[in-house]
From TrEMBL:
<dbReference type="InterPro" id="IPR029062">
    <property type="entry name" value="Class_I_gatase-like"/>
</dbReference>
<dbReference type="InterPro" id="IPR005320">
    <property type="entry name" value="Peptidase_S51"/>
</dbReference>
<keyword id="KW-0720">Serine protease</keyword>
<keyword id="KW-0378">Hydrolase</keyword>
<protein>
    <recommendedName>
        <fullName>Dipeptidase E</fullName>
    </recommendedName>
</protein>
<dbReference type="Pfam" id="PF03575">
    <property type="entry name" value="Peptidase_S51"/>
</dbReference>
<comment type="similarity">
    <text>Belongs to the peptidase S51 family.</text>
</comment>
<keyword id="KW-0645">Protease</keyword>
Amino acid sequence: MQSYRQALLLSSSNCHGFSMLEFAKQEICSVLEKNNVKKLLFIPYAQNDYNKYTAKIKEVIDLWGFEVSGIHTYKNAEKAISDSKAIFIGGGNTFLLLKRLYEHNLVELIRKRVYDGDLLYIGSSAGTNAATKSIHTTNDMPITYPPTFDAIKIVPFNINPHYIEMESETHKGETRDQRISEYLEQECASPVLGLREGSILKVDNNTLLIKGVAGAVLFEKGAKKTEFAVDSDVSFLLKTQ
């Protein structure tokens, strides 16, 4: 492993026009190979059927030459994390995911190992939300109560996965932009990076790049939203307080 923070934060595992994770295959394989990772620990806590979800991911990634195993198959989740060089936290419900990460005492452990450069983090959807400052900007319903909305903080800002702009003459309800604006009105608010479907935020030490097949949108207090195309450098966001 390289001795610095590394992560791939995907908007989702599925993207229109691609099979599962296909749009992210090059980035995932590249970072795993770069770090000599052969075994990938999958964390399916955002869903309830751990075996089914893990099997779905395993079916894809094992064919790429890596070996996926589910954290639920280990007796001790903390030891499973400590013994791993790379993890993949999948999507589902973000509130449920964060609650279970805290229940298994994994939030601080993952954060420390990622920052020490000992653990590569891959997240998708809810797994991406969990990697940020907080889960305030998830799209999910609060079906359960995590002890706090504070997340792993691999990056010091928030992300809105599955970001989409609603422009319709018939839709008169709240748009995603409006909901993000409501969050930004709060005193605790940090910038929000909206990842369109097919977008990936690549964290490589002190560098942040937009990768994948779609761009991203940045929302900040008192500013107009800013568009970022694929391959844009958004490293300045690491300086967010």
